[in-house]
Specification:
- The structure holds three protein chains of three kinds.
- By secondary structure, chain A is mainly alpha-helical.
- Chain A is built from 14 helices and no strands.
- Helices cover about 75% and strands about 0% of the residues of chain A.
- Chain B is built from twelve helices and no strands.
- Chain B is flat and about 75 Å long.
- Chain B starts with a helix and ends in a 13-residue tail after the last helix.
- By secondary structure, chain C is an alpha/beta fold.
- Helix content of chain C is about 50%, strand content about 10%.
- Chain C is built from 17 helices and 13 strands.
- In chain C, β4 and β5 form a beta hairpin.
- In chain C, α7 runs parallel beside α9.
- The N and C termini of chain C lie far apart (about 100 Å).
- The relative contact order of chain C is 0.16.
- The chains are: A mainly alpha, B mainly alpha, C alpha/beta.
- The interface between A and B is large, with 105 and 117 residues.
């Protein structure tokens, strides 16, 4: 027999449930614009690229819309090509070299700029310039700076009597290194700004409390800064890897993938296949391989996030 | 905290404040070192300015300091590119605002609401960053042609946000995760709905990450070339990244005009960025817990 | 009353009739002339000054003659192909399309272009190889008004100083380059970067020695590559050629860092702007004395995409004929440092009269060769192989013969 009290509580309970559902609806609305945008702008391209990897997509296909299905033939063709293994190794070296360089230098600069001094704001903004310049401009400037005979870099090295006019962009042993150096230069601002922002979010009190316990300098970094910075660090590294794997215009502008394929990466190979040899199916397959590699890192990131849980 | 430790903390704080005040007066030594860092980092930028002040096609062996300064590059750049610069500024600012409007609520929802498929959404966002731009550009060209969005600032804002929105979601999400749940729960207990919590509590605390996300959305859009090329067919609405190519052909390049345009384009942007970076201040998350 | 009503009816009727006649009279001229098209869309890549203005003027003049307006879309050179593909996929190709000549056969093979024979256009009187480049499976798809090629530029003062004359054979080229190389400068430069520009520059050496693009793994091509390797090893050519574009080479020449360079006539305006620089042009040296220097043909061709709008296509064809008129060819060629493609004495002599500096190029074009004449839409693969082989050999990674073999894998 339902007393008035229990009926009331069941009504209250059901009202709480509908309130909860209403709240849930509002929460979903927060996500809807973003999800709609992502699906609208990326949904079709993602699917199209995956499908293209399985098709014999030539120039004709653009005009007629027909592209015969060839299954895994594209993937077989590119993996067995003579350039693939060196491009794969180059991509690995290029990514690791760039990320390590950009991140460490970026972090060092971000830490330095935490200090208060005059013109801090202005200098921090000027650091953004490498990221700001159009790539056609940056690659032109670096091509001149790295010119073997007359480039400024070699002129400086000459003055310091350090080495004998290395051919930065024209020697197979140096080309990849040169490209990595330029990519580090371009990527530093990205790391500096985001890491600086993350550093600024760490409460001062923690450092002060740490000082009471005698933790300063390196120890403060290791026990306060680094743990608090970890979520920002992991997103910066992840995005850094994803963006670096895609780097194309910089390498094309500096060396075109040469000399003799010394600076050819999977991304530049994908471009070559599509826009120089007009084998769009193979180019898409190569791009999909890059997506799979990035996906691996993304999954690792998300897994680490889940286990770390939300900080409290 | 005991009274004794509170007094200790207060005196420590006072000492620190004093030290900071002293530092501000003598901080110029740190500025100098900061400038040295910049000199190394920005030497190529100096080269750009150097070339912009020289005649026609300059090559690797340009002198260190422009001995024979000419302003023809700048004259040309100002004459040809002012319209393009304006378009770039409008599109980039619009894209930054649009990206933040869409991504802030989404990042908040993913960080705070207990959504089971949050990671799936984040994965989708990440995958969108992995797609080569040309694939997106090709798809957009067809869609825009049918929708009549070619040669429009609005169309460019929408397209350029393909870089800003996913990035902002990821960055804001990472920063928002660091906000203590206790703060959010406190707001709910006070009766604030999710929107109110976002606007009145979380956003002020996320000021740093919002400025950062907005900054990069601006920069991504500012330096975009692909969509500028694909989604415009006339000179009416043409960003400066494409306008730059007026001086570059297959065989000849008028580098001084190119570099001059670059310098001119960088100046308003740097000013904007200095202004924006003022807002990345310390301690926005501090004090909330108390 | 009825009288006036009938009268007013009559008046209105007459007035209406008059209006109708007037309206149809106004409408008639359009249909009477037969021009159902009043504007056409054009796509080209003359994005930089002064090319942009020169071609803009030409298109507008031809358009005015035909009574139509021109809606022109201009893109940077490197972006033309992707635009064409995008527009092809969305069925929004322009009515008149400009293509770089080696790309025409690629596009024609997709069925996207209309054969010009349909409009009664033939390539008669044009340089035969120029026509070959714009022909696919026996049908003419494009008409090219002007062309260019590359030759050997040299610094007159430097050669005089060193007491040497411009080389005509490969052996002389090596000697002269060596003699001209000093501490401050290199004797010779060409462009050998990892893209089609590198291929373009190597072709005259390959072709003049009997090499062929259908199979590059031959002794003739290996000898040509060996010449380049020898020049590099002699120290007469800088290693930087592996990264230099033709624009870079020109800059180096202008600054006095190189005595001779392989380059094209488009550099003439820049070179002439410097009063202190005295230069002249000769044909690229041949292996033996008295041989023919065979250089590649550059220049852009104009085609009509298959848009389905017959009237617009016909109008575009008329535009092509206008662009290729004798007078327009000469005027374009003089303004753009190129050579008209009509080989009649009338055209060529008038041209050289107006642009004496182009005499050497006018001669060279007669024996020049198109890149896609033999391979058609298989050219991209061969072109990639050529520059890969060049880079392999010049970096010392392989001997010329091995490099050519490796590149073909």
């Amino acid at each position: 027999m339902q007393t008035r009290m229990s009926r009331r509580s069941s009504v209250l309970a059901s009202r709480k449930l509908s309130n909860r559902r209403k709240e849930r609806l509002i929460e979903m609305l927060f996500l809807v614009p973003a999800i709609v945008y992502i699906l609208a702008f990326f949904g079709y391209p993602v699917v199209k690229n995956i499908v293209m990897g399985f098709q014999d997509y030539t120039m004709k296909s653009f005009f007629t819309g027909e592209a015969p299905w060839v299954g895994l033939k594209n993937y077989e063709a590119i993996i067995s090509s003579s350039v693939f293994s060196s491009a794969f190794v180059n991509t690995f070296l290029f990514t690791i070299g760039s990320i390590v360089g950009q991140f460490t230098i970026g972090l060092a600069i971000a830490l330095y700029f935490r200090k208060r001094f005059p013109l801090n704001d202005l200098l921090r903004s000027l650091i953004l310039l490498p990221w700001l310049l159009p790539l056609i401009v940056s690659s032109a400037i670096w091509r001149w700076l790295l010119d073997q005979d007359n480039g400024a870099i070699n002129r400086i090295l000459d003055m310091m009597q350090l080495s004998d006019h290395p051919g930065w962009l024209t020697t197979t042993s140096l080309a990849l290194t040169a490209v990595i150096i330029v990519n580090i230069w371009i990527g530093i601002p990205f790391n500096v700004v985001i890491l600086y922002s993350g550093l600024q979010d760490i409460p001062e009190e923690l450092y002060e409390a740490g000082q009471l316990d005698g933790a300063t300098g390196w120890q403060a970094f290791r026990w306060i800064t680094w743990p608090m910075l970890r979520p920002v660090v992991s997103v910066v590294l992840l995005l850094g890897v994803i963006y670096t794997l895609k780097v194309l215009d910089l390498i094309l502008g500096l060396t075109g993938g040469g000399p003799a394929n010394a600076s050819q990466t999977l991304a530049t190979q994908s471009y070559q296949l599509s826009f120089v040899q007009f084998e769009f199916g193979q180019g898409a397959a190569m791009a999909n391989i890059l997506v799979l590699i990035s996906l691996l890192f993304a999954v690792i990131y998300l897994y680490m996030n889940k286990s770390a849980g939300k900080s409290s | 905290m005991t009274t004794a430790s509170r007094t200790r903390t207060r005196s420590l704080l006072r000492n620190l404040m004093r030290r900071k005040r002293r530092d501000r007066l003598g901080g110029w030594d740190k500025t100098l070192f900061g400038v040295i860092i910049l000199v190394f980092l920005l030497f190529p930028v100096y080269w750009m300015v150097n070339v912009s002040l020289q005649h026609g096609g300059a090559a690797a062996s340009t002198p260190w300091i422009p001995t024979d300064v000419t302003w023809t590059g700048y004259a040309k750049a100002i004459q040809d590119q002012s319209g393009h610069l304006l378009v770039s500024l409008l599109v980039a600012s619009g894209s930054a605002v649009f990206s933040l409007l869409i991504s802030a609520p989404a990042a908040y929802a993913l960080a705070v609401f207990r959504i089971r498929w949050a990671n799936a959404v984040l994965l989708a966002v990440l995958v969108s960053q992995m797609i080569p731009g040309i694939v997106v550009a090709n798809a957009l060209y067809s869609a825009y042609t049918e929708a009549g969005l070619l040669n429009s600032i609005f169309g460019l804002i929408l397209a350029d946000s393909t870089a800003g929105i996913p990035f902002s979601i990821l960055i804001l999400n990472a920063f928002m995760r660091a906000i203590p749940m206790s703060v959010i729960e406190a707001a709910r207990i006070d009766g604030a709905g999710p929107l109110r919590t976002l606007v009145s509590v979380v956003l002020p605390m996320s000021r740093n990450s919002i400025v950062t996300a907005g900054l990069f959305s601006f920069l991504f859009s500012w330096s975009d070339f692909l969509f500028a090329l694909t989604l415009t067919t006339t000179d009416e609405v043409r960003p400066v990244t494409l306008g730059l190519y007026m001086y570059i052909s297959g065989f000849i390049s008028d580098w001084s005009s190119v570099m001059a345009t670059s310098v001119l384009a960088s100046i308003p942007t740097i000013l904007l960025l200095v202004f924006a970076q003022r807002y990345i201040a310390a301690g926005t998350t501090a004090g909330a817990v108390k | 009353m009825t009288e006036t009503l009938r009268a007013s009816h009559a008046w209105t009727a007459t007035a209406a009739m008059a209006l109708a006649v007037a309206a149809s009279a106004l409408a008639m001229p359009a249909t009477a002339i037969g021009a159902e098209v009043d504007s056409i869309r054009v796509l080209d890549y003359y994005n930089d000054s002064p090319d942009r203005e020169i071609y803009g003027e030409l298109l507008n003049t031809c358009g005015a003659e035909l009574g139509i307006t021109i809606n022109r879309e201009v893109v940077p050179g490197s972006a033309l192909m992707s635009k064409v593909l995008q527009q092809g996929a969305s069925r929004t190709l322009p009515d008149l399309l400009m293509l770089d000549n080696p790309e025409l056969q690629q596009i024609a093979s997709t069925g996207a272009l209309v054969p010009l024979g349909k409009f009664g256009i033939t390539g008669e009187g044009f340089q035969s190889q120029v026509i070959a480049a714009s022909t696919y499976e026996g049908e003419l798809y494009g008409l090219q008004p002007i062309t260019n090629t590359i030759a050997l530029f040299y610094n007159v003062d430097m050669l005089e100083e060193a007491g040497v004359t411009p080389p005509t054979t490969w052996a002389e080229l090596r000697e002269t380059a060596k003699a001209l190389t000093t501490d401050d400068r290199y004797g010779l430069a060409f462009a050998a970067p990892a893209n089609y520009e590198g291929t373009w520059q190597f072709l005259p050496f390959m072709w003049s020695n009997g090499g062929d693009e259908t199979n590059i793994d031959t002794p003739e091509t290996a000898e040509a590559l060996q010449l380049w390797v020898d020049l590099l090893n002699d120290g007469s050519v800088s290693r930087s050629v592996l990264n230099w574009t033709q624009a870079d080479v020109n800059d180096q020449f202008r600054q006095g860092n190189i005595a001779m360079m392989v380059n094209g006539p488009w550099q003439i305006p820049l070179l002439s702007s410097d009063a202190d620089l005295h230069y002249d042009v000769v044909a690229i040296p041949t292996p033996e004395a008295g041989g023919t220097s065979v250089a590649p043909l550059g220049g852009e061709t104009w085609a009509v995409p298959n848009t389905g709008n017959e009237a617009a296509e016909a109008m575009a064809a008329k535009m092509i004929q206008c662009i290729n008129s004798d007078q327009n060819q000469i005027s374009l060629a003089v303004q753009r440092q190129t050579v008209p493609t009509k080989m009649s004495d009338a055209v060529q002599e008038e041209f050289v009269k107006q642009a004496p500096k182009m005499k050497t190029f006018s001669e060279m074009v007669k024996s020049a060769r198109a890149r896609t004449a033999k391979l058609g839409n298989d050219w991209p693969k061969a072109a990639t192989e050529i520059y890969t082989a060049v880079q392999l050999a010049l970096t010392g990674k392989a001997s010329p013969a091995d490099a050519l073999k490796q590149a073909q894998q």
